Amino acid sequence: MRLQIPPRFIRHCRSDAQGVARVGPQQIYIIPTRYGLGFALLLLLMWIGSINYANNLGFLLTFLLAGLGMVTMLHTWRNLVGLTLRPGRCEPVFKGQPASFEIQLCNTRSEERPGIQLHFDPSASVSEDLPPCSEQTLTLMQRAERRGRFPMPRCTLSTRYPLGLFYAWSYLELASETLVYPAPGSHIAASSQPSYQPSQQGDKGVGTDDFVGLRSYRPGDSPRQIDWKAQAREQGLHTKQFGGDRADLLWIDWQQYPGLETEARLSALCRAVLDAAGRQQDFGLRLPDLQLKPARGETQRQAALTALALFGEQP
Fold it and tell me: Is residue 110 helix, strand or coil?
């Protein structure tokens, strides 16, 4: 059972300057569930029957159950009030993938808070029982439909504890966001060949001359390049990397994909970045408003994907 509240009457629980949100007494809404309505109807029938038959024991039982219902409503409301929430880690994702938002719940009370639920969509809620003086982390998923910065949507904190007769909830707006990269496109042939330039540093390219290090084994690596001695020492499978005397630097350029719309071009550039990073190749990125110097590794990969994700945004 859900009650639609006009937006102008909603009192959100928002994060403060430290990013912490605390559920206040006036930020909790509570309504009876269908079981609560059935319980109220049963009490009404018992009360009418007690009046008709002048049954004192009937009156006693009716008022006892009514008092139990009132106490249940108080406990349902009290299960949420004073609860502290703060946003957790949010990993970047590609467009079209589900983004995960971590939310840390802190119970500062010396009593348990059972049946706490969080959700963006009521059909995909997560629940947890919070022990006394404890912290728990819940993760909510939301599909990323747009590239760029993705702020955490408004979520709902709710409970039906203890008897399920009442449903209490509060709206949360936490200061958290994640980054959405462009969706990697298919392998689109560039209108011009990728731009290569000779590197000023030797022994950094992909070749067969000089040994430059090891990396984790990937399916498809040649058996000749596997470090079998490390495998014999039970250190896992590793692949040897060799470099030439000089390295070629790959430039991934916005101008290599003319005729494509902005999002399609960003998807093609994203695919090129992922391919270059997968080959452990030095690469740079040229965009109309940014140029990323050639480098390699996870830092370069993240920097390039971030530049593509934030393309077109005002600084």
Answer: coil
Q: What angle separates helix 262-278 from helix 298-309, to the nearest 10 degrees?
A: 180
Cα-based distances in Å from 297 to 118, 159, 237, 280: 38, 46, 20, 7
Name which of 91, 96, 100 is nearest 124 in CA terms: 100
- Cα–Cα distance for residue pair 296/282, rounded to 1 Å: 5
The whole-number average pLDDT for the span 73-95 is: 91
**Across-strand partners of 283?**
250, 295
> Per-residue pLDDT tens for 154-178?
899 999 998 999 999 999 888 889 9
Residue 44 phi/psi, 5-degree rounding, is -65, -45
Q: What is the pTM of this model?
A: 0.71
Q: pLDDT above 70 covers what percent of the chain?
A: 82
CA 125, 80, 136, 165 torsion: positive or negative?
negative
Which of the given ranges, 63-77, 180-194, 279-293, has the highest pLDDT on average?
A: 63-77
Sign of the dihedral through C-alpha 288, 303, 275, 271: negative
Q: Would you say 180 and 147 are in contact if contact means Cβ atoms under 8 Å apart?
A: yes
